[in-house]
Amino acid sequence: MAITQTTVYLPNILFDETEGSIDTSSQPGIGVSIELERSSLRPTSQLSNSNILHPVEGLTAATTNDHHMLTRSKRGIVKKKAFLSVLSSICSDSTLSEPYSHKTALKVPAWKSAMQEEYDALINQNTWTLVPLPPDKNLVSCKWIFKIKKNADGSIARHKARLVARGFSQEYGIDYDETYSPVVRHTTVRMILSIAASYGWPLHQLDVKNAFLHGVLNEEVYMTQPPGFEDSQHPTHVCKLQKSLYGLKQAPRAWNERFASFLPSLGFKSSYADPSLFTLISGTSKAYLLLYVDDIILTGNCDKLLAEIKTSLQHEFEMKDLGPLHYFLGLEIKYLSHGLFVSQQKYARDLIHKAGLDDCHSHITPCQSGLKLLKDHGTPLSSNDAAQFRSLVGCLQYLTFTRPDIAFSVNSVCQFLHCPTDQHFTAAKRILKYVKGTNDYGITFRRGSFSSSDGSLSLQVFSDHNFSLQAYSDADWAGDPNDRKSTTGFVILLNGSPVSWCSKKQTAVSRSSTEAEYRSMADTTSELQWLKHLLTDLHLTLDSTPTLHCDNISALALATNPVHHSKLKHIEVDIHFTRDKVRDGSIRLQFVCSQEQLADLFTKGLCSPQHDYLCSSLMLGSPPSS
């Protein structure tokens, strides 16, 4: 008698033969465990047809054993089997993973529904018309992209399918020209959060659905029909695009121009300091709007005005009101009785998990005190490890959005992206190990104002709703052993909370510590002037002249008086920018002792006590109790 053998393969399933159970806990998102009765593990000759567990169609390959060789199956000897075919439909939950092709997605109801929703939205927006492809015209291909949208707690919010054009197949000058589109700066986001916290204003979040479809194309673009949704009556036709589609090189610019052209009809005015910041002033009522691609933050002092703005935006664009701002671009906003707490805890957890450091020991500082990374120190990384290193460093850069304590360390490893070694990779991992131990760190924006006329910070009652800017500038002279260039570091506080900071290597070699500090002061002054322009666009006033703190007496003297020094006569004219602003009264300078120099955190690796002290002074730490 011929016996049919069936073999089933299903990855990530472990079978414990000693216990006779199947464990799927190793597969993320699936927790299925089925106990098999030992009586069921009998030779097939002892099983009736009703007891045989048949494999799932499409997952098995059957062969007929009709040769004359005496095998164990012919003798009735059967080894214990996991009968994985029974679990295939249970364990391979395709809704928990993102498919790589549209053919796979169409077989899963959740993804098929998401694709249909996206396709219907494209049709309703009159995104294209089907036409024959004209001769000598470029044809742009397209594909489906799938993404599982998650909430701040990691739970699944929805399945998102997006049809995107493959922009790399476009040709410059034929189907696209200008591509630049602005997004709101990180400093501007922190400024608005700080202002909203000081006033106690509400923060609203909105999301534009299919934002790029609202942009109007000025070029003639032809695209292939969406895979899986081809028109059966016109299979050879192509899509002549009427609206900008995700993936097109000019799509972000077209959407931004469309949105920015509509806001003036509501009374908004774009900021000169940041084109993605819009302000509306109506009598005593104020409203501020931030735009980052299709994500919007809206705040102001009048609830009625904010409600009218949201209604107008929803009437013009298909938009979702996400309610109070809680999760924005990886930022987590926690509302306190005395302000806001902003962190990136989920982003950091995901990064730690991605790097495989969930079980690692943490460090108390992001880098070793006094450590200098060398260009050729260590063994060069393989191409795969180098790619992982660059990916990790890029993610760490974004983490500095709310973590100024790692800015210097991240800047250090960023200088070795071209040819990294194992020592550089170790330094990058140390930063992440420090983040693991301080994952709950974030910035507190308090409802109040701070004064620091004597160099110390103290909380005062925020009664007149005016603002103060305090800047700290520092430099590490010839700190880079590779080229002996100095490191500039500064931090600027708005009402006591950091809103802007920087750690970067200077472009020229300084001949003295005074020159290095003087160059750093010029960069800090430039940032101070930009923040003043930003506050002016927001129709806010400063209660005093911005103060720039420096711990180098010679640099302060050079910025205050036009003294001549043989070691400074070569300095470029633009470096004297600070002296000009001191002369016209735009800023004032003040000496600060090195122990209270907050910018020290951005120029060198510090020991743990000093590092912790400066973090606390910058309102950086664990979330307050209330």
Automatic annotation (TrEMBL):
Residues 126-367 form the Reverse transcriptase Ty1/copia-type domain. Its EC number is 2.7.7.49. Keywords: Nucleotidyltransferase, RNA-directed DNA polymerase, Transferase. The keyword Glycoprotein does not apply. CDD domains: RNase_HI_RT_Ty1. The keyword Transferase applies. One of its GO terms (molecular function) is RNA-directed DNA polymerase activity. This is Putative RNA-directed DNA polymerase. It comes from Rosa chinensis. The lineage of its organism: Eukaryota, Viridiplantae, Streptophyta, Embryophyta, Tracheophyta.
